[in-house]
Amino acid sequence: MPAPIRLRELIRTIRTARTQAEEREMIQKECAAIRSSFREEDNTYRCRNVAKLLYMHMLGYPAHFGQLECLKLIASQKFTDKRIGYLGAMLLLDERQDVHLLMTNCIKNDLNHSTQYVQGLALCTLGCMGSSEMCRDLAGEVEKLLKTSNSYLRKKAALCAVHVIRKVPELMEMFLPATKNLLNEKNHGVLHTSVVLLTEMCERSPDMLAHFRKLVPQLVRILKNLIMSGYSPEHDVSGISDPFLQVRILRLLRILGRNDDDSSEAMNDILAQVATNTETSKNVGNAILYETVLTIMDIKSESGLRVLAINILGRFLLNNDKNIRYVALTSLLKTVQTDHNAVQRHRSTIVDCLKDLDVSIKRRAMELSFALVNGNNIRGMMKELLYFLDSCEPEFKADCASGIFLAAEKYAPSKRWHIDTIMRVLTTAGSYVRDDAVPNLIQLITNSVEMHAYTVQRLYKAILGDYSQQPLVQVAAWCIGEYGDLLISGQCEEEEPIQVTEDEVLDILESVLISNMSASVTRGYSLTAIMKLSTRFTCTVNRIKKVVSIYGSSIDVELQQRAVEYNALFKKYDHMRSALLERMPVMEKVTTNGPTEIVQTNGETEPAPLETKPPPSGPQPSSQANDLLDLLGGNDITPVIPTVPTSKPASAGGELLDLLGDINLTGAPTAAPAPASAPQISQPPFLLDGLSSQPLFNDITTGIPSITAYNKNGLKIEFTFERSNTNPSVTVITIQASNSTELDMTDFVFQAAVPKTFQLQLLSPSSSVVPAFNTGTITQVIKVLNPQKQQLRMRIKLTYNHKGSAMQDLAEVNNFPPQSWQ
Fold first, then answer.
1. 448 and which of 26, 415, 473, 626 could share a cystine (Cβ 3.0–4.6 Å)?
2. Strand, coil or helix: what is 721?
3. Which key words tag this protein in UniProt (predicted)?
4. What's the number of domains the chain is made of?
């Protein structure tokens, strides 16, 4: 059989292929020749054939038939064969295939080989694709090589030990004695790998973390020597001595100093030295400075050092490299909650980033700008953000408008400024605002009695000839309907009044009705406004009647219904029209934390004991179970028993008509209120126990697996379960809410409902803010009485504010473990 072509010739041949099909044909032909050679057990050219096979594998062609040939090369005594064999094993094999276990004995022999390069090949392969079984069998050999005097082997053994620890964490203690001595090594390669090994051990074991904290002075000394050392051509990168080792040491110091005062104190000085002495003209220096900033912000550092770190990020914002600017904005966004004043000093630079061409930088700058808004800078920041809203891309407008609304509501210096700002947003980006922007602005205008004339005049001028911004037109139509008489009278004191006739006002509203740009909702606002003006205007009532009667035959059902009802007001109930259409009273701000009878608000401090009282003789409060909507199918909803008794009477609307957001999820009709003579629902005995200063349960049995009830948009809700020994029908569910996004979730409220066969009680949550980056959790206790031992089902509702938007979601939990309810 002729000798196979060399790898170099194969590469040259494949590169001459003009089409994919031609290349595929060449590969198939060569694979056939390689297979034939493998079948003939040709030892002479096995190494060459496997090398060619690896090249084909890297091109994306199947090469699995060469796996056993790799094992044969590994077993060979030639170094060249072993080198290709181990390389093939790392590329073609992984722990999912049983073939790799056949290598264990060969690797063990090679780890004890007399040649360091053969030992290095075995260590590389084990550290790359060793399974947990292989790691257990060969950990002893790796640990011996960690103690050798050969620095070439020690650095490879340290990296292999990292892989062993990841696969079999319980073997960590085996490497503890050898790891301590690695930091005394002068060789930078060994030092680098030893720091990697220490980092892995500290991240995986709290005990190791506490043990290695005493190495902080030694790590500080190594880092100081790196900074103070002169030029070393072996380790110099752009004028900085071994930046890779410096970055690794800074990361390890960050882990060791987190939540530890003594360790943080020991590293404060060296971090200040690194921050002040590192050259920033090259990217290498910026990488070290960035790691230094992260370490300073993560440990318990001094306030002056934290200001220095934020100033470094401020300098990053002036860098020409977009990546560095993006990193700086992201880091400042993480620290703005803890060091607000220090970040405020760089406000002008951050605002300048809003004009950047890069959309990622724009988004980060916008989020950071909103985080910097406060009562002192609200006017200046809103001016910049409104200018940004004018010129930004459409994908930014919704988030920017929401952020401006929230900031204006929180920090508005005056009612007029607040109204002007929101109107500016509606004029600029009205089509992108949230659905609740219109009712919120209407409420704001209604409550600002002294601003009614000014507002209606501004809105009238804003919609003259432009109906493209539908939310703006809706607010304007509502205000013209309410305060049209003020518009006609010209009583505006804040600015020069305009002279408008009744017919001109009606012309505008009729134009909105017939405009092709008007949505159905906008037409409804306009028709209602025209109807209201029948009691505000005196000369155009007949015209209004005519317009209303025309829309009585509209193809839009909503408009038709309104028009028919308004026609009836003109004809049958004209004596009631003025009373029905009188001006709206001042609106009260409605809280969204749910009904008052269900005490779940995040402002509660301590649950009070419940008392069982005899039923009163008068009408029952609306917290009866009958008033709850059917949330899980059938009229079987149980009331949520409050942790604090309430004395608030039933309102006309009934606060408990809907536990989870005014929606009948099953379409079933709402149950009628209970008659006055019906007895009050008795509270189960377990709810009366332990709600004083005593612990909730002293006889808890555990061992029930936890579940993830919700995991979406960075919010994760986990349920853990406990059972009472004295009352097996009682299950205590502890919810833990965590947040993996980069911003806190505020005003967090958790609500729940269960079928009627259960009794459920929500206790107070630990907080109303879910911290970002999983740095903390909110906990809340749910107690469920399940006397019939039925499978547990639950519907939950989550509301919170995130990135300037009010978020709300519903979910159903049906995967409760059997131990929690059987």
1. 415
2. strand
3. Coated pit, Cytoplasm, Cytoplasmic vesicle, Golgi apparatus, Membrane, Protein transport, Transport
4. 2
